[in-house]
Amino acid sequence: MTLPPGASAATRVGGGDINEAFRVVLADGREAFVKTRPDAAPGEYAAEAAGLAWLAEPGALRTPAVLEVGEDYLALEWVPHGQLDGVGVQELGSGLAATHGAGAESFGATGQLASAGFGSLRLPNEPTEDWPRFYAERRLRPLAGIARDRAALSSAGIEAVERVCDRMPELAGPPEPPARLHGDLWSGNVMADADGRPWLIDPSAYGGHREVDLAMLRLFGAPSDRVFAAYGEVAPLAQGWQERVELYQLLPLLVHALLFGGSYRGAAERVAMRYA
């Protein structure tokens, strides 16, 4: 493991499936959460730090402050954990709508957000002119290529994903401006503090379609359906969004099929074939 210089009193804590995680005291006396991995991709933690700052910028939802960042570690402020309460659920929904509404310069991103990480997978974030092209060419088609190389999906499943990409202009829904996405918004990346308020952690941030964040939150267990009601009160979704939920769940299903296999493989193929 690698910790910030001068860090002490390291205690191992839960940190997900990919990184090691520790509660530490930094050299200046501040408590910090540190995630570390010896094989982190170059710039991975700097990109995460930039994503946290970008999501916090609108002031609608909290993210942990970045205290230190290195090539193989990221130190964030220590946030005492709690349970999301009713006010926190409402805040998550309305805050997510406001964060999305703060927008992005493009579909994709530039600078330190130039690539997106999903576990050990790295996907391109180079901007495109429209959302259907971005979702097809920067997300689904690259994942289909990795799946082909790793034999992670059947040939029929890969062909189905390719057909979905070809059909994306007619599938993706009405045009919308780019939203400011968390990009990996499952329930484990929504943390509650000791006061029951929500914080966003572990982003894979980029400019995209807001239904992507919401679809992933539905896939892996939102804290409450009231999150979506609160979201809709601030920013109602475009007509037909219900028919697009699984289209946008195809992204995390493919990622999980590549990282974990098992039932995710069949689920990704089923969804791809639905829209192919």
Major beta sheet, strand line-up: 1-2-3-5-4
| CATH architecture identity of the largest domain | Alpha-Beta Complex
What proportion of the residues is helical, as a percent range? 40-55%
What would you call the shape? globular
Can you tell me the number of structural domains? 2
Strand pairing plus helix content: what structural class? alpha+beta
What string, H for helix and E for strand, traces the elements in order?
Answer: EEEHEEHEEHHEEEEHHHH
Note the main sheet: 5 strands, antiparallel
The number of strands is: 11
Low-confidence stretches: none
N→C terminal distance? 44 Å
Radius of gyration: 19 Å
Instruction: Please work out how many helical segments DSSP would assign.
Output: 8
Give me the CATH superfamily of the largest domain: Aminoglycoside phosphotransferase (APH), C-terminal lobe
Rounded average pLDDT = 92
Any idea of the CATH class of the largest domain? Alpha Beta
Strand content: 15-25%
What is the CATH fold-level name of the largest domain? Aminoglycoside 3'-phosphotransferase, Chain: A, domain 2
3D architecture notes:
The protein has 2 domains: 8-77, 2-Layer Sandwich (Phosphorylase Kinase, domain 1), CATH 3.30.200.20; 86-275, Aminoglycoside phosphotransferase (APH), C-terminal lobe (Aminoglycoside 3'-phosphotransferase, Chain: A, domain 2), CATH 3.90.1200.10. Helix 3 (131-150) packs parallel to helix 7 and helix 7 runs antiparallel to helix 8 (263-275). A hairpin with a 5-residue loop joins strand 9 (190-192) and strand 10 (198-200). The protein contains 8 helices and 11 strands. The chain has helices at residues 44-56, 86-101, 131-150, 155-171, 210-219, 226-234, 241-260, 263-275; strands at 8-13, 20-25, 31-36, 66-70, 73-77, 115-118, 121-124, 179-181, 190-192, 198-200, 206-208. With 276 residues, it is of the alpha+beta class. A 5-stranded antiparallel beta sheet has the order 1-2-3-5-4, with helices on one face.
